[in-house]
Specification:
The protein is mainly α. The protein has one domain (2-216). The chain is built from ten helices and no strands. The chain has helices at residues 2-10, 12-38, 45-55, 58-62, 68-81, 87-102, 106-137, 144-196, 206-210, 213-216. Helix 5 (68-81) runs antiparallel to helix 6 and helix 6 runs antiparallel to helix 8 (144-196). It is rod-shaped, with a radius of gyration of 26 Å. The model is unreliable at 200-211 and 213-221 (pLDDT under 50).
């Protein structure tokens, strides 16, 4: 009953904010599902990476795993086998592509979370305007209880906007943290492999920039 009253009093703004929450929830759920499907590499992965590389069984061993780290390592290994000298650029290209996939939808979630309270405030302002128009029409002789009820109705949209925005932004930070951890893992494992391969010619800062999405600003909508 209370929810139905909120939608009734809040008007179109509350309906729009409910659409915000449903859209954000669908994107967040899809992102969480994608991260879950990536799997998690075992703790001894880095150690076994070096061992299998020295044994010449790296490609077969990597085939048993999945995730962005594996995609980067596989790309570097295949490029090295093909005689590519600048393996750092290979890490840049594949790492950037994997990060774009992981961060797909982040910008949309950010927009929804940042605009939800503004939309709620806009609804409150419209409600206050209506309340003061009633006061003007009544010549200033307005019952205090009626005025309080009008202000209460106007404040509903601000409350709904904040209620929508706060969980969205919290989940966005959670997703960004998950992407950061995978980015660090990609960067670390790529460094290990690049150091072990004899064909590698590391050129300056390229390798660390390859998979550091906060600096290069890789965000996909």
């Amino acid at each position: 009953m209370i929810i139905a009253e909120i939608f009734d009093k809040g008007g179109i703004v509350v309906w729009v904010l409910s659409g915000y929450s449903l859209l954000a929830l669908s994107i967040i759920f899809e992102r969480l599902l994608r991260f879950a499907m990536m799997g998690k590499l075992p703790q001894a992965f880095e150690k076994n990476l070096v061992i299998t590389l020295k044994q010449g069984k790296l490609d077969d061993w990597l085939g048993a795993y999945r995730g962005p780290e594996v995609a980067v390592l596989t790309g570097i290994s295949q490029a090295a086998a093909a005689g590519v000298k600048d393996l750092t650029r290979v890490a840049v290209r594949i790492g950037s592509s994997e990060l774009q996939r992981m961060e797909c939808g982040f910008r949309s979630i950010e927009i929804l979370g940042n605009t939800a309270p503004l939309l709620g405030l806009l609804g409150t302002i419209f409600g206050m305007i209506k309340a003061f128009m009633v006061i003007e029409t009544a010549g200033g002789k307005v019952d205090a209880q009626a005025l309080a009820g009008g202000i209460w109705e106007a404040m509903i949209t601000t409350g709904v906007g904040l209620s929508v925005a706060i969980p969205i932004l919290l989940m966005l930070h959670l997703l960004e943290g998950m992407a950061d951890r995978r980015a660090h893992s990609m960067r670390s494992l790529a460094s290990v492999l690049l150091e072990q391969l004899p064909h590698n010619e590391i050129q300056g800062e390229g390798e660390s920039e390859a998979i550091h999405h906060r600096e290069v600003g890789i965000h996909a909508v």
